[in-house]
Each structure stands twice: as C-alpha cells, then as structure tokens.
Amino acid sequence: MAGALLVGYDGTPGAHAAAGEALRLAKPLGVDVVFAFAYWANPGGGEVADMLTALREQGNALLEEALRLAEQAGVPARAELVEGRPSSGLVDLADEDDAQMIVVGSYGEKPLKGALVGSTAHKLLHLSERPDAVTAGHPKLALEKAEELAEPGGAVLATGSIYLIADLVREPGVARVSMI
User: Fold this and answer.
1) What is the mean pLDDT of the chain?
2) How is the chain split into domains, by residue range?
3) Topology given in CATH for the domain delimited by 5-150
4) In the chain, fewer beta carbons within 10 Å around the N or the C end?
5) Helix, strand, or coil (residue 23)
6) Over the stretch 129-149, which tens digit does the pLDDT of each residue have?
7) d(CA 100, CA 85)
C-alpha cells in the first residue's frame, strides 16, 4: 500500500482546506491520513518551558479536531505532535513515515512577504523531495499562489479545486509535480 498523506494542521482556514483536500484524496487512493502539528519556540526567549507547554496543549486540541474530521469522512487517520520548525519538521516526519505527499494550507501571502517572513508552504516546495499539495481556501488565491511558486520553466495546470505545478528538475527528463 502507498504511504499516507501527511497534513500540516494548525487550525487555520488554509489548514481546514488542506485537511478537506487530503481526506477527499485519501478515500479513492485507499491511504490513511496523518495530521501533524509542528511547533517551535526560540530557546533564546524567556519562559520557553511555559511556551512549549502551551504550544503542545494547543497542538493536541487542534489534532483532536482534525481526527474528528477524518472520522466524519470515514478515513483512517492518526495525529503527531512534531517539535521543530514546521517546514523541516513536516519533511522529517514525511521521510520517517514514507508519506506519499505532504499537504498544507496557505495564508495567501504575497511573494515578498512570504520570502521575508518565511512561508511554510514555500519552504516545503524547496525542502521536500516528495510531492507537496498547497491548498488555499479561495480558488483565486490558490491560482495566484501556484503561479508565484512555479519555478521558471515550470507549468501551472488547473484541476478541480487544486492546481498542479510541474517544475523541471535539474536532471533532464525528470519533473517534480506539486499540487496547490
């Protein structure tokens, strides 16, 4: 059986869209869904232990919500708390689980803000060697995000409520397809 779909879940509208898309894809593919809440606190800040405790509590509550969504959809799922920066934590978990795909939501930030502040979705497309699905709650935002993330020489193809980004990899004849 193919690996599970890994969903980065933080309770935002983009995360709800990602969960919905993963649950929709999981049934016909016959795969499970793994919901992950990744958290990190700067060790240089004060009261780090209290902050980490609060983040774990918030993560557990959000993961319970995600598992209820999976139960309602009739899709087998489990939840994982991941201590670490979201992008690298999700990539590491996907590698450990041999996930088929990483699915995350997008806030729909503009390119400059995403580059300066750091978008988890944008980082995943560069860190992950497996397909990534980036969802947005609004189709227009999803198309704008797909066009923004496509590498030069890549293509954006519309398909249902998500968009495929086909980026040419440095090896001739090899393409990496990401869904948004």
Assistant:
1) 76
2) 5-150
3) Rossmann fold (3.40.50)
4) N
5) helix
6) 888 777 775 555 555 555 555
7) 21
